[in-house]
Specification:
elongated, alpha+beta
Length: 123
């Protein structure tokens, strides 16, 4: 390896390891007035966040109470069902049963003038 290439590699190693950079944990000098202003700003933000947190805790308790109420209402809810469907459908006696392509069809008279008499559909 050439001497120039060796120096390049040494510089790269020094840059990446931070050996030539000096102490890494030294904080920059700040003005005490800036620190006080920043402290006041952080305290104000902390107060706002605390009040927001308190409001959210209250809202959470209210929502939990609403949830418990809704759960008790759902557990005591009675579902009313309609009448059960008849086991066999009923059709009037004057309808004529037939089949078309394997499916049952009914010929329905338009006007007989009398009340229909019901019978089971499977006759």
């Amino acid at each position: 390896m050439s001497p120039l290439r060796t120096i390049q590699w040494a510089c790269i190693v020094l840059l990446f390891t931070g050996i030539g950079a000096g102490p890494a944990n030294v904080e920059p000098q700040t003005n005490p007035a800036d620190g006080a202003a920043q402290l006041k700003q952080l305290q104000e933000k902390n107060r706002w966040l605390q009040s927001r947190n308190d409001a959210l805790v209250i809202q959470n308790h209210e929502l939990e109470a609403q949830l418990k109420l809704a759960q008790t209402q759902l557990s005591t809810l009675n579902i009313l069902r309609g009448p059960a469907a008849p086991a066999t459908p009923r059709i009037p006696d004057d309808w004529k049963r037939g089949e078309f392509n394997g499916m049952p069809v009914y010929v329905i008279p338009l006007d007989t003038g009398a009340a229909p008499i019901m019978r089971p559909a499977n006759k």
